[in-house]
Amino acid sequence: MPAAKDFKSIPRHVAIIMDGNGRWARERGLPRTEGHRAGAETVRRVTEACTEIGVEFLTLYAFSSENWKRPAREVAALMKLLEQFLRQKTPEMIEQNIRLQAIGRLNDLPKSCQDQLHRSIEATSQNSGLTLILALSYGGREEILDGVKSLLESIERGHLDKGMIDTEVFSKHLYTRYYPDPDLLIRTSGELRLSNFLLWQLSYTELWITPTLWPDFGRETFLEAVREYGRRQRRFGGL
Ligand code: FPP
Predict the structure, then answer these.
(1) Fewer Cβ in 10 A, N or C end of the chain?
(2) 8 Å CB contact between 18 and 62
(3) Residues lining ligand 1, judged by CB closer than 6 Å?
């Protein structure tokens, strides 16, 4: 078991694009939904590893704005899986001191899914360990647009003056206003793109991409990413 001291530095916030469930299933001649089911199990391994080394925030890209374009059958299966995951894992989250949060256009989710999500968020709200943030019906561009609208509303209500708008103020109008920006972004299954994920927040985030498919991702691969992160020099545009 590695101790936190074995790592040069621990990212405070890790964000993950969980990709490759479909390919994992295809390689095994299974339906895509089996890949998503296996992917949901990976989530537990990764939250355990985060808790083990002291990561404070973990954001998972579970369903993007673009994912609504998938065949209705797959969308329905994903929503069912999400609801099931939340229902089954909430006692585990409580036991592991995990606080659940969600970002995205949550009102787009089926009603029963929204209800379960809010129950799970409420049931874990007093926990003080890892904050697990699920990005659901989430798109980075959509989030920025929602932020602009929220900013305009504040101005209209007289709570904010146009001259006061800076990056800090704008950040407070995003879904992520309560969380620090991610320090490390992991993407599985080898694709080299951001796919509309946390576009504003990833400005200075370290990127780590692995060919491993999400269902095969686990503690060791996660720790490898964190080790590599510790070797990077972050300059935030300075020297
Ligand atoms: C990408 O694989 C994965 C998704 C679109 C959904 C992610 C969902 C899970 C990991 C399971 C549910 C998660 C939770 C938190 C319950 P893909 O289908 O794009 O794979 P492919 O690129 O190989 O086709």
Answers:
(1) C
(2) yes
(3) 18-23, 36, 39-40, 43, 60, 62, 67, 81-82, 85, 134, 189, 214
